[in-house]
Amino acid sequence: MFIYIFSIITLARPQWGFEWREVKRKGTDILLVIDVSKSMLTQDVKPNRLERTKLAVKDLIKKLKGDRIGTIAFAGDAFLVCPLTSDYGGFMLSLNDLDINSVPRGGTNLSVAIDEALKNHTDEKEKDKAIIVITDGDNLEGDPMEAAKRANAVGVKIYTVGIGTEEGELIQVKNERGALEFLKDKKGNFVKSRLNDKLLSQISLETGGVYVKSSGSEFGIDFIYDRYLESREKKELENKQEKLYYQRFQYPLLIALILLIYQTVLSYKKEFA
Fold it and tell me: Model pTM?
């Protein structure tokens, strides 16, 4: 009976006591620039463009091993909602909170989004800087091509992921009562949002990046990471203090072995007594 109990304890691998150990880390920086304008509520991609984007980013997180990831949300303005971090749990919390209210100013301004990304990509030691812009490309203000030129001038490649369809759909939003209705412009006309392939392709081409059109089976972020980002030269990241617990399974294992030997000897004596 006691042999069984101590064997179970051994398999549970008990730990107590610990020491802090400094761990050197290497990785790459992945800065996501995510469109949270109302056009991202369009349901030509299920469940809608924004929610599909968040699901794809969550899949990407599962692949990362020490790389830092951060997020900039943009609509008519742009804000850093999660600085570059290797705390994937904290990153996921900020990702889950992303919605069309994350940026107070409506509209879509790719130019300010790119400029905000450049402000947060300032590590001069990093040779191969890159950002990933996820949007339908429905730009309403600013000059994203001029912003792309500024990115190219400082050596930042822009990879773009286009989400949506060329046919597009009407945009569904919730009214003050919480009921869904189709978005209208100031003239009372229904607003239809379409994917702007051409603009996104031009932005990437200007900076030496790549444009990927999202599809049902392949969103595009995984492809960019696997093909272009994972193979980049890893840089030294800030060392991390990790709590290393001491393994104590040896003690219950030793007790179980002693009891087993004792039981074997006892059985042997009884057999030949």
Answer: 0.76
